[in-house]
């Protein structure tokens, strides 16, 4: 049994949630700062930290109130301590440390990247315990990450692909800025693309194809989105002589073709990796996993032997339910973080995934 408070402040959402036993979400509060950052066309780390400071208390209070839980009833406090924006992470981490210290509760530092993957299991934690769920391939695709993580039945994990420049969400955010649509770009591009022709313009699909870098073994499942961004920039320069902005059909076709290039690469690489590693489950998670075109495309291209698990939309973008849920697996093993736990900005080398929690007997029985 566990009752855990989760706190998440790694980017521009201030979030708090209470989760029971890793999967019963009693509350899930998210305060978005989107409006504050929109004017800058992206997240400003120091501004994010300041906003977290003002939002944290009310968000925390309402998460506890909604769950009907007092601080004394909690078993632990979990907090994202990386990867993310350093000034933003520190607000949540210090808040969690204060609550833990003041209430004599254990502290559990959570890796945001792994929490995004766990989000796909919040509605069905039992699936984690079924050996036939593995090997599992997760496409984590957000504003900060675009990566493929392979997890075997023992919980051993390995990054088999990652972006060598921008994340897919970043590519969508920057395109939306160039097109004058606003921030965050993903949902705005999706809306602008709705009635457009995705095949009107051919945007580059970097690191795909049959020649050059794309066929180098180290890049087979890697991603690159700087080329597609540059191609849009040049197209807009050509079209926008005299400061003209795209609108109507032209805007819709451009947004649709750009979105198609990004989604096509994500879907094709994920399908290829799923085949190569003969995985039984593919997880789609992270903010870009909200995208309707990507959600519809993956089932079309995945091998039949791989079951697709889509994180619920509300758990795709940053939230604290995934943080409090994942923390349950540390709590069960008494794996707590020391009071001087640090925040970290970049993704560390991931060698195991804590939520794959098999007993040795199950593994030996399978072999
Ligand atoms: O996971 P998330 O909330 O934050 C990070 O950890 O980065 O992801 C945010 C990203 C942004 O780049 C945003 O544009 C993108 O997710 N996003 C979408 C959609 N909704 C959010 N991208 C494509 N289509 C969407 N519907
Ligand atoms: Zn995230």
Describe this structure in words.
This protein has eleven helices and ten strands. The protein has a five-stranded mixed β-sheet, with helices on both faces. It has a five-stranded mixed β-sheet with strand order 8-7-6-9-10, with helices on both faces. The protein folds into two domains: 3-120 and 315-348, 2-Layer Sandwich (Nucleotidyltransferase, domain 5), CATH 3.30.420.40; 131-311, Nucleotidyltransferase, domain 5. α2 (45-67) packs parallel to α3, α4 packs across α10 and α5 runs antiparallel to α8. The protein is globular and about 65 Å long. With 367 residues, the chain is of the alpha/beta class. The model has no long low-confidence stretch (mean pLDDT 94). Helices cover 40% and strands 17% of the residues. It starts with a strand and ends with a helix. The protein has helices spanning 34-38, 45-67, 86-103, 112-118, 168-178, 185-193, 226-239, 248-276, 292-301, 321-332, 360-366, and strands at residues 3-8, 13-20, 24-32, 76-82, 107-111, 136-141, 146-151, 157-162, 281-285, 307-310. Residues 11, 142-144, 169, 172-173, 184-187, 190, 286-288, 290-291, 317-318 line the site of 5'-O-[(R)-(carboxyoxy)(hydroxy)phosphoryl]adenosine (KG4).
């Amino acid at each position: 049994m566990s009752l855990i408070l989760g706190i998440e402040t790694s980017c521009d959402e201030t979030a708090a949630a209470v989760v029971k036993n890793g999967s019963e979400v009693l509350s899930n509060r998210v305060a978005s700062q989107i409006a504050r950052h929109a004017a800058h066309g992206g997240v400003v780390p120091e501004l994010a930290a300041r906003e977290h400071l003002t939002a944290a208390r009310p968000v925390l209070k309402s998460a506890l109130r909604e769950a009907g839980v007092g601080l004394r009833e909690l078993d632990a406090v979990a907090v994202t301590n990386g990867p993310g924006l350093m000034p933003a992470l520190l607000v949540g981490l210090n808040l969690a440390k204060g609550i833990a210290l003041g209430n004599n509760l254990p502290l559990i530092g959570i890796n945001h990247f792994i929490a995004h993957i766990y989000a796909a299991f919040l509605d069905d934690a039992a699936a984690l315990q079924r050996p036939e769920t593995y090997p599992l391939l997760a496409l984590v695709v957000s504003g900060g990450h675009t990566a493929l993580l392979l997890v075997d039945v023992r919980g051993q994990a390995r990054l088999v692909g990652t972006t060598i420049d921008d994340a897919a969400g970043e590519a969508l955010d920057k395109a939306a800025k160039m097109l004058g649509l606003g921030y965050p770009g993903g949902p705005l591009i999706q809306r602008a693309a709705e009635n457009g022709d995705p095949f009107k313009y051919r945007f580059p699909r970097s690191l795909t194809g049959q020649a050059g870098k794309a066929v180098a073994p180290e890049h087979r499942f890697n991603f690159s989105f700087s080329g597609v961004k540059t191609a849009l920039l040049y197209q807009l320069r050509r079209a926008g002589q005299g400061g003209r902005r795209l609108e109507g059909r032209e805007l819709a076709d451009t947004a649709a073709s750009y979105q198609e290039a990004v989604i096509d690469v994500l879907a094709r690489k994920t399908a290829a990796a799923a085949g190569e590693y003969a995985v039984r489950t593919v997880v789609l998670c992270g903010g870009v996993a909200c995208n309707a075109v990507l959600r519809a495309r993956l089932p079309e291209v995945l091998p039949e032997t791989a079951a697709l698990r889509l994180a619920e939309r509300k758990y795709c973008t940053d939230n604290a339910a995934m943080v409090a849920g994942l923390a349950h697996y540390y709590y069960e093993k008494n794996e707590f973080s020391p009071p001087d736990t640090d925040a970290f900005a970049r993704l560390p080398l991931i060698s195991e995934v804590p939520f794959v929690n098999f007993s040795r007997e199950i593994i030996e029985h399978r072999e």
